[in-house]
Description:
- By secondary structure, this protein is an alpha+beta fold.
- The protein contains 2 helices and 5 strands.
- It has a 3-stranded antiparallel sheet with strand order 3-4-5. A two-stranded antiparallel ribbon has the order 1-2.
- The longest helix is centred in the N-terminal third of the chain and has 24 residues, at 2-25.
- The chain is flat and about 60 Å long.
Amino acid sequence: MRREEQALQNKVSFNRAFFRLKQQIAKMDFYADKAAYSGNDVAYTYCSEAEISTKLEPVLFEHGFAMMFGQRQEADRVVAEVTLIHEDGHEEKREYS
Length: 97
């Protein structure tokens, strides 16, 4: 029972900190410093991992968060894994392919 209560408290702490984090991130500016081309034309621009990391990591740490990244191969696709960890022990994982 104590383990379940602690897990719930950690999740509550994660959610509160995440809400404050999102409020701060919403005020930040990120610049598209990379481009993808279609022939000689720019198809779209995007933020590099370096651009995002440089600006986002200090804010994550300020709110008690850290991120881990991984990837794995599944048949004919690569799955990217992103885990957001809070200092109180709760974590959330998302996968993209």
